[in-house]
């Protein structure tokens, strides 16, 4: 059989990839990789960059380019058959990774190069790759005895399977719940766009005989009506606008108990055991490697040097923010009581009355703002901003292969007409697609003799899709999300580093990787930038000055509450990993309650099972690392403050950010790169100022 995963094409042939291709392709590539490593180790005893590291990068690249579309399709067009094939490969890939990390001969070969005269002649990126590799050998258990090496390998495989199962439970539980509303009065308060989407979801589901089609979930029915689901655009519309308090409560409970022992599908897709096992195995792995806990192990590849650095940073921010958060909540409670007679503000009321309060005090309606941000204006505006900052041209390509009809494809060229990067854009929520927004690498930049492999990114969001002739309309938060993910994409695609291990986002400290993404969000609040990306979907009128002024006035509305909520997530994540005790187990909700006592102002109901859907830390690479968002926000706010001084489209400053941050990838330590750009170490002042919090 012709296997598209083995074709070594420039771009993946998504439409040809079938579940039955996956395991044979990965088996063949792993066998070839093992053989190649062995061959290169045996060819010589005098190892160099050219005869060892460069050919092994080719091996890694070939494997990555086959696994990337498999992993991506598992996230965006999930099916039982694809899931089974994906899961069958996870232990194979984990075993290979551990074998390489524990390969004594390979470790000695890298050390030989590090100790040789050649090392001093290598460029900064090459030296960083070798140093990273030697560190990663240690973190893979190279120093362990054989019994402990095997245990490390077993742990790694099991963690890989547990993370996948955690994500599957969350996807399945999200898709399992829907509610058909037969009386439009039950949806009073919802804007026309949300009603139209709920109507389309119901119609699509009805047409499919109850099968999910576009953004819907299974829910067989033969009646007309409006269907609400746990897809985020549907959920947030109900939470923000539905006057029906009981409907909000029901929807909130279904969303807040996904993949747990509570709620409408209690214990059906329960992640409780997965979470306990993940924490236990991470702790055991850390102890095997000589760390006191997984938090210490996590920091081995980050900017922060020790756990106290992280907790002090988070607690300091909490101390600065808590008074503001208390004030925000008190004002919301008073507003709900005074204007609506609500004396017992509940979790399912928070978003609803916050929106009412925003409209009351700022005359600002999110729904009105949306009308000025059709995707047909936002996307060209984003591209225009990138062109102004970095001198880039972004063009859409119509002839390409993809995994879904919604997907679009673009190329980025620089001022010399050199192709710098390419990206897929998959913007809309649908069934069989995991929630959230993310950037992932499809192809990484790498030099092959005289040719450069052009980097390719996946940019994925879950916005409300278009309905009828109306284009997708984005909330300002969604505009910010798009800019955030595009910042990640630029970091991956604009790299000028030719070596796989540190090109793009590869090799970047995890708590610095959010710098380019959060940095891009700042343009979403600048009048000059908003003029480029706004235009009423019916009249093309630019965002009016009066509406912009209201947005700016409301920018830090409830900023204190938002800040402490993120700090709650970060401290919870860090503490369940730092304080893990094998004799007591994970104590997940006990520790969460302690963290809430320390920093939270809003306390959710007892049935809330937030951690059961916190896939960032249990399945997404942010374990003991969620603090990275706030850590990197210090960097991004301080970096943007230079544009505030020089001008938001100052080309010299844009070029400095491009050359010192985006193009350098992971080739240097993140702090060095920041200082090269900013001229000094970062300070927290700009972060506090941008959030309306006094220094």
From TrEMBL:
Class of this enzyme: hydrolase
Catalytic activity from the UniProt record: Hydrolysis of oligopeptides, with broad specificity. Gly or Ala commonly occur as P1 or P1' residues, but more distant residues are also important, as is shown by the fact that Z-Gly-Pro-Gly-|-Gly-Pro-Ala is cleaved, but not Z-(Gly)(5)
Any matching Pfam family: Peptidase_M3
Keywords from the named record: Hydrolase, Metal-binding, Metalloprotease, Protease, Zinc
Cofactor comment text: Binds 1 zinc ion.
Recorded superkingdom: Bacteria
Domain Peptidase M3A/M3B catalytic positions: 238-692
Keyword Metal-binding: yes
PANTHER family cross-referenced by the UniProt entry: PROTEASE M3 THIMET OLIGOPEPTIDASE-RELATED (PTHR11804), SACCHAROLYSIN (PTHR11804:SF84)
Protein name: oligopeptidase A
Organism: Methylobacter tundripaludum (strain ATCC BAA-1195 / DSM 17260 / SV96)
């Amino acid at each position: 059989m012709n296997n598209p995963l083995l074709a070594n094409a420039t771009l993946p042939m998504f439409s040809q990839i079938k579940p039955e291709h996956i395991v044979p392709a990965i088996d063949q590539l792993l066998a070839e990789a093992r053989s190649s490593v062995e061959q290169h180790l045996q060819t010589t005893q005098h190892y160099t960059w050219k005869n060892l590291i460069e050919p092994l990068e080719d091996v890694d690249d070939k494997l990555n380019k086959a696994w990337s579309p498999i992993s991506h399709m598992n996230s965006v067009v999930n099916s039982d058959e694809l899931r089974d094939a994906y899961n069958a490969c996870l232990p194979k890939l984990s075993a290979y990774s551990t074998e390489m990390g524990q390969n004594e001969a390979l470790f000695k070969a890298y050390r030989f190069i590090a100790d040789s005269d050649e090392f001093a002649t290598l460029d900064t990126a090459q030296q960083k790759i070798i140093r990273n590799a030697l560190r990663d050998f240690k973190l893979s258990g190279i120093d362990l005895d054989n019994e402990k090496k095997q245990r490390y390998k077993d742990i790694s495989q099991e963690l890989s399977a547990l993370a996948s199962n955690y994500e599957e439970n969350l996807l399945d539980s999200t898709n399992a719940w829907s509610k058909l509303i037969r009386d439009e009065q039950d949806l009073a308060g919802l804007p026309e766009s949300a009603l139209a989407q709920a109507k389309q979801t119901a119609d699509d589901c009805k047409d499919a005989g109850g099968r999910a089609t576009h953004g819907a979930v299974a829910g067989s029915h033969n009646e007309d009506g409006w269907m609400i689901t746990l897809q985020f655009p549907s959920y947030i519309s109900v939470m923000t606008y539905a006057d029906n308090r009981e409907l909000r409560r029901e929807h909130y409970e279904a969303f807040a108990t996904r993949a747990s022992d509570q709620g409408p599908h209690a214990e059906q897709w329960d992640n409780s055991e997965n979470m306990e096992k993940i924490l236990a195995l991470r702790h055991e792995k850390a102890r095997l490697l000589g760390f006191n806990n997984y938090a210490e192990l996590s920091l081995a590849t980050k900017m922060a040097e020790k756990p106290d650095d992280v907790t002090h940073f988070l607690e300091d921010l909490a101390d600065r923010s808590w008074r503001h958060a208390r004030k925000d909540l008190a004002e919301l409670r008073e507003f709900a009581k005074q204007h609506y007679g609500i004396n017992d503000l509940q979790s399912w009321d928070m978003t609803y009355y916050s929106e009412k309060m925003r409209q009351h005090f700022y005359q600002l309606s999110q729904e009105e703002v949306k009308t000025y941000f059709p995707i047909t204006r936002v996307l060209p505006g984003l591209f225009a901003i990138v062109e102004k900052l970095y001198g880039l041209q972004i063009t859409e390509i119509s002839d390409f292969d993809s995994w879904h009809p919604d997907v679009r494809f673009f190329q980025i060229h620089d001022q010399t007409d050199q192709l710098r990067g390419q990206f897929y854009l998959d913007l809309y929520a649908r069934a069989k697609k995991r929630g959230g927004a993310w950037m992932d690498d499809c192809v990484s930049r790498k030099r092959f003799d005289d040719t450069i492999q052009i980097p390719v990114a996946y940019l994925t969001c879950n916005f409300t899709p278009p309905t009828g002739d109306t284009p997708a309309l984005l909330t300002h938060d969604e505009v910010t999300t798009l800019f955030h993910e595009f910042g990640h994409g630029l970091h991956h695609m604009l790299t000028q580093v030719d070596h796989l291990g540190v090109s793009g986002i590869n090799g970047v400290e995890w708590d610095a990787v959010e710098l380019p993404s959060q940095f891009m969000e700042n343009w979403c609040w600048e009048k000059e930038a908003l003029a480029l990306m706004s235009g009423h979907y019916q009249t093309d009128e630019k965002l009016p000055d009066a509406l912009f002024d209201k947005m700016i006035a409301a920018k830090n509305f409830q900023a204190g509450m938002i800040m402490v909520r993120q700090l709650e997530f970060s401290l919870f994540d860090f503490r369940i990993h730092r304080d893990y005790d094998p004799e007591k187990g994970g104590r997940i909700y006990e520790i969460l309650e302690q963290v809430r006592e320390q920093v939270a102002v809003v306390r959710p109901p007892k049935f809330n099972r937030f951690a059961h859907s916190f896939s960032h830390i249990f399945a997404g690479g942010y374990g003991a690392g969620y603090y990275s968002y706030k850590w990197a926000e210090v960097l991004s706010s301080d970096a943007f403050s230079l544009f505030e001084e020089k001008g938001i489209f100052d080309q010299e400053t844009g070029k400095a950010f491009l050359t010192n941050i985006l193009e350098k990838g992971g080739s240097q330590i993140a702090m060095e790169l920041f200082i090269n750009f900013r001229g000094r170490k970062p300070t927290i002042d700009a972060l506090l100022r941008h959030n309306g919090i006094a220094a």
